[in-house]
């Protein structure tokens, strides 16, 4: 940071912009990136316009060749970190116009994306993250951080922009909730059909099993995404109708709605080995607590007295 303040980088502004735009930032890196951007913003007037333009390229629709799962996953992660960075840059005044978020949200809430399930999952995650980080954009108060509301009052988000964000998010939530209801109906229909097959033949074919697992996993992921968005915009999460006529069909590699993963693949309950050791390797309290507090001192004294009486009786 000290070098950024002292070294003349006027000839390398474009390189600095490219490096920041291409960096794979984690959530923990965002604040450090904001500090770097803030220093460069203060020293070089052409830095911020180039940076914003470069960051917004992340949200341009991908090329038709971007079909690999690794490409899709990396693009989704890049969008998430870039959106977080842009919001933080807006909070510190480097991004001055909130209209850039209007264009981003307009694309993310486009109903055309609902035809692509992976795009829907990504957009739900991005929208939930956007609302949690920038509740002021839709006029929501910050839970437990009332002081933030005073700070946000000075940010230039117009009433029309807040109205747009709120309407776009609510309309998208309604549409994706309808999609969830439709997928739930398809899932329950498949479960009813599978139950009939199980009753008649005792087992499902590999094809039926694979189809069911795919649909159920898709439904579970969509349910989590919709519920997360509902929580972010202060709405009640969707409740799926239950007619009591069908039940979840187990296939041997059952997927639970809560995790979306096979029970055979257990997630570790400890974050790291140190945490595991802390909870599982319990110390011997007698090495740290005085014996009198554990009642051991009195017990030893009684044993000594009893031993003394026994020795006395032997002498007599």
TrEMBL record:
One of its GO terms (cellular component) is cytoplasm. GO terms for molecular function: RNA binding. InterPro entries: ARM-type_fold, MIF4G-like_typ-3, Nmd2/UPF2. Residues 236-263 are annotated as: Disordered. It comes from the Eukaryota. SUPFAM superfamilies: ARM repeat. Signal peptide: none annotated. Residues 23-180 form the MIF4G domain. One of its GO terms (biological process) is nuclear-transcribed mRNA catabolic process, nonsense-mediated decay. Residues 242-256 have a biased composition (Low complexity). This is MIF4G domain-containing protein.
